[in-house]
């Protein structure tokens, strides 16, 4: 990400980890980690990212997992990008 670069950030909203053993009739081992929107926004703000637009998307019935997803369009600095993502992924 370049300084003043743009970033689209999308995540499942919640506080759980969903483990999946089967996907499209194939055996898999996947963990989906859900995030709290307020926590993500607080971290973005703390690291000087500016939210340009935010929206919530609900799943397509019968095609996706039933939880909602938040999508954030943000602007920030490269040096701040590395710092915030280490905090988000190391829950």
Q: By helix and strand content, what is the structural category?
A: alpha+beta
H/I helix tally: 2
C-alpha Rg (nearest Å): 15 Å
Strand line-up in the sheet with most strands: 1-5-4
Tell me the number of strands. 5
The biggest beta sheet is recorded as: 3 strands, antiparallel
User: Can you give the mean pLDDT?
Assistant: 81
Proportion of helical residues: 10-25%
Q: Distance between the terminal alpha carbons, to the nearest Å?
A: 23 Å
Order of helices and strands: EEEHEEH
Question: What share of residues are in beta strands?
Answer: 35-45%
Shape call: elongated
Taking pLDDT < 50 over at least 5 consecutive residues as the criterion, the unreliable ranges are none
Topology overview:
Layout: E1 5-12, E2 17-23, E3 26-33, H1 37-46, E4 50-57, E5 69-76, H2 78-89
Antiparallel strand pairs: 1-5, 2-3, 4-5
């Amino acid at each position: 990400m370049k300084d003043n670069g743009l970033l689209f950030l999308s995540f499942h909203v919640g506080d759980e980890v969903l483990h999946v053993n089967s996907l499209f009739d194939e055996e898999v081992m996947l963990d989906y980690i859900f995030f709290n929107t307020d926590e993500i926004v607080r971290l973005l703000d703390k690291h000087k990212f500016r939210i340009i637009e935010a929206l919530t998307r609900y799943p397509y019935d019968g095609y996706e997992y039933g939880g909602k997803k938040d999508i954030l369009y943000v602007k920030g600095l490269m040096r701040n990008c590395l710092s915030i993502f280490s905090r988000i992924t190391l829950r």
